[in-house]
Backbone:
């Protein structure tokens, strides 16, 4: 009888029901959300999401947002990859360009995007280049004749890379002035007429510079995706219209692919699969949460979410592009 009782005890102790559940793990814990930029658009999204996501994570952990700016989210991405806890108590909100930095083998991109677990994105956006109307450039064609100063925040960052790409690949006369601390600083510099413009997502520019568009100080010159955007009545040209070769179009397509990841959230590598799934579904539920949607509306944030599975699929597709295209794409964003 003692042997039978011992055997039963061993079976029960090894049964799945005795294992720690996701709710048990997260109960009374805190999740850190590392934002790879200074206060601005990514930070705003992170703080709005975390105010509502807690109730959708099993165990209802608390959330805290921490800014870790620098090098276009590279500092944050490297931290998340190699130093952050790998148990599901740390999440990241990083630049949509982070996967491409790694695929292009950019300096200091010390991570493999395929080893992160991708949680989702709250929105999809368009990227555009904006220029002051008194710069003498009021149409993309003028960029082949007249130099304009564009604000940037350092080599390898998305704000700096787009005008460099347009210059190196297509011959547009952009001159990048680096050293600004994010897009908000550049918008202020545009107001002071220190620089003529910047290239960034439409949503991000609207957060800090919509008034400049409204009063005619600034104009959207072109978007950076393949097709014209119906939202702008198909009147704003796309940079693809100025590509002359198939190679140029392929390189533009590689850089445009980052837009499809939206504003991605991720976990460090090796987080247990059941916690990744719980975080993905909690993120999805937050995107439908009435309180979240109302706060987003009040802050003029356009919610257009993508699942973690979608973001992961986009990144895997990027990883499958030919090495030749990726190498040339990397070359074109170097000063």
Residues:
């Amino acid at each position: 009888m003692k042997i039978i009782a011992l055997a039963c005890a061993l079976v029960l102790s090894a049964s799945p029901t005795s294992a720690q559940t996701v709710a048990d793990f997260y109960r009374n814990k805190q999740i850190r959300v590392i934002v790879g930029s200074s206060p601005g658009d990514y930070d705003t999204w992170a703080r709005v999401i975390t105010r509502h996501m807690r109730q959708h994570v099993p165990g209802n952990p608390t959330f805290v947002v921490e800014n870790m700016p620098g090098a276009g989210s590279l500092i944050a991405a490297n931290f998340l990859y190699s130093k952050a806890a790998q148990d599901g108590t740390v999440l990241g909100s990083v630049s949509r360009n982070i996967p491409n930095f790694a695929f292009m083998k950019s300096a200091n991109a010390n991570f493999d995007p395929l080893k992160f677990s991708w949680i989702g994105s709250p929105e999809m956006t368009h990227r555009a280049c904006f220029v002051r109307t008194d710069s003498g450039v009021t149409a993309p064609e003028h960029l082949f004749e007249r130099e304009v100063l564009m604000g940037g925040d350092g080599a390898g960052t998305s704000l700096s890379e787009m005008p460099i790409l347009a210059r190196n690949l297509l011959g547009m006369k952009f001159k990048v002035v680096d050293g600004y601390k994010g897009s908000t600083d550049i918008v202020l510099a545009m107001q002071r007429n220190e620089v003529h413009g910047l290239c960034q997502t439409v949503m991000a520019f609207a957060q800090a510079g919509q008034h400049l568009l409204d009063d005619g100080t600034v104009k959207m010159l072109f978007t950076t995706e393949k097709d014209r955007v119906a939202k702008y009545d198909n009147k704003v040209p796309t940079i693809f219209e100025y590509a002359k070769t198939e190679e140029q179009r392929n390189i533009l397509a590689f850089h445009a692919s980052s837009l499809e990841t939206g504003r991605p959230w991720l976990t460090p590598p090796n987080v247990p699969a059941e916690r990744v799934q719980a975080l993905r579904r909690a993120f999805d539920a937050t995107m439908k949460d009435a309180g979240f949607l109302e706060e987003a509306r009040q802050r003029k944030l356009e919610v257009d979410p993508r699942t973690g599975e979608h973001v992961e699929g986009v990144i895997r597709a990027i990883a499958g592009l030919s090495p030749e295209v990726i190498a040339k794409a990397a070359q074109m964003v170097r000063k």
Remarks:
- Residues 20 and 26 are 10 Å apart (CA to CA).
